[in-house]
Design a protein that fits this description.
Blueprint: E1 2-5, H1 14-22, E2 26-29, H2 34-37, E3 40-41, H3 43-53, E4 65-71, H4 78-82, E5 89-94, E6 107-108, H5 112-117, E7 122-128, H6 145-150, E8 153-156, E9 163-164, E10 175-178, E11 181-184, H7 192-202, E12 207-213, H8 233-246, E13 248-257, H9 266-275, H10 284-304
Parallel strand pairs: 1-2, 1-4, 4-13, 5-7, 5-12, 7-8, 12-13
Antiparallel strand pairs: 3-6, 9-11, 10-11
Helix pairs in contact: 7-8, 8-10
InterPro entries: Ureohydrolase_dom_sf
Organism: Pseudomonas versuta
Protein name: Arginase
Length: 306
C-alpha cells in the first residue's frame, strides 16, 4: 500500500501509521511538491510527480496497487497512476462531482476525467454517486457531455433532479433524455446490490481500476474539503467487494481527506474560497470519521487482496 504524503492528512491516522510502522505500507514524501499540485498543476510539476512515483515499491505481482493520496484536491493525479497499465480497463469512479469540466492548459482536479478518457487503455469510465450542483446547467460549466453521448462515460448520480441541456445528448445507461432534460437513474432509488450486479455484467473489460473520492460519502462517514454526497460507507464497501469477486482489480486510489491549504497562489486561494465550503464546519471529532472510514477500507483491501 502506497501512502502519497502530499498534505500531512494521512500519516497521523492510526490505521495508516500502524501499517507504516510494521512495513505493510510505504510512504512517499511529496510534501515539497504537494502545494504545487493542489487543486491544479502545471505540466512541469505534473511530470515531476510522475518522476517521483518511480520511487515507490515495485508493483506487486497478482495484487492491485493501492494508493492513498490525501485531499480530493489531488484527484487529477489519478491519470498518472493509470498511464502504464498493460491491458484495457474500466475505470470505476466514486465521487460527489463528475470532474468532467474542460480546463486548459492546466491539469485540474475538476477536469481530470477528460485526461483519463484519452488514455489508450481506458475503455470506459463509470462515475457513481454525484449529488453536487455540477449537474445543474452543465454546458455553461464546460461539462464533457460528448463523452456521455458516446457512451465512453456513464454517470449515475446518487440523487439529482433532471438536468436541463441544449441539443441532443441521447439516452445512456444512467440517464434518459426527455425533450431538453436528462432524467437521471438515481442510485438512492435503486436496490444497491442488484444495481451493482447489473453494472458489473455490463462492463466491457475483465479488469477494472477503482478510484474513490470520499466526498461521495455522506457526512456521517467522511469529512472532506468539498461538499459531501449521500452514499454510505456500507454501499461503497459492498461495491468494492462485488467488483473484486467478479473482475480483476488492477489498482485502487483513494482521496478525499481533509487538509487545510494555506495557498500561496492567489488564484488557488480564490478558487478554494469560492468552490469549497468553509473548513470551520468540521470539528476534530468530525475529522476522526476519515480515519474510521480508511480503517474499514484498508481492512477490506487486506481481506480481498492478501
Amino acid at each position: 500500500m502506497n501512502i502519497l504524503d502530499l498534505d500531512h492528512s494521512l500519516t497521523a491516522q492510526a490505521p495508516i501509521a500502524l501499517r507504516l510502522a510494521d512495513g505493510r505500507a510505504t510512504c512517499l514524501d511529496l510534501l515539497e511538491l504537494g502545494p504545487k499540485l493542489r487543486l491544479w498543476s502545471s505540466e512541469r510539476n505534473y511530470q515531476r510527480f510522475i518522476k517521483a512515483l518511480q520511487n515507490r515499491p515495485e508493483r506487486p505481482a497478482h495484487k492491485p496497487e493501492i494508493f492513498f493520496v490525501g485531499s480530493g484536491d489531488y484527484h487529477h493525479l489519478t491519470p498518472a497512476l493509470l498511464a502504464d497499465l498493460a491491458e484495457p480497463v474500466t475505470l470505476i469512479h466514486f465521487d460527489n462531482h463528475p470532474d468532467w469540466v474542460r480546463f486548459a492548459p492546466r491539469r485540474h482536479c475538476g477536469s481530470w476525467i477528460n485526461r483519463a478518457l484519452k488514455l489508450p487503455n481506458i475503455q470506459r469510465i463509470v462515475t457513481l454517486g454525484p449529488c453536487s450542483d455540477d449537474l445543474q446547467s452543465p454546458q455553461f460549466k464546460g461539462a464533457n457531455l460528448g463523452a456521455l453521448r458516446s457512451g465512453a462515460l456513464q454517470l449515475f448520480p446518487w440523487q439529482h433532479a433532471p438536468t436541463k441541456v441544449w441539443g441532443r445528448i441521447g439516452d445512456g445507461a444512467g440517464h434518459e433524455q426527455h425533450e431538453n432534460h436528462l432524467h437521471w437513474r438515481n442510485l438512492a432509488d435503486l436496490d444497491w446490490p442488484t444495481f451493482i450486479d447489473d453494472l458489473i455484467q455490463s462492463l466491457p473489460t475483465p479488469a477494472v481500476w477503482i478510484t474513490i473520492d470520499k466526498d461521495v460519502l455522506a457526512s456521517e462517514d467522511a469529512a472532506t474539503n468539498w461538499d459531501q454526497g449521500g452514499m454510505r460507507l456500507t454501499h461503497l464497501l459492498h461495491a468494492i467487494r462485488a467488483l473484486a469477486a467478479s473482475k480483476r482489480v488492477l489498482g485502487i486510489d483513494v482521496c478525499g481527506e481533509f487538509a487545510r491549504a494555506p495557498h500561496r497562489n492567489l488564484l488557488k486561494r480564490w478558487e478554494a474560497r469560492s468552490d469549497q465550503p468553509a473548513p470551520e464546519r468540521w470539528s476534530e471529532a468530525d475529522l476522526l470519521r476519515n480515519s474510521t472510514t480508511n480503517k474499514a477500507l484498508i481492512s477490506l483491501f487486506e481481506e480481498l487482496f492478501p
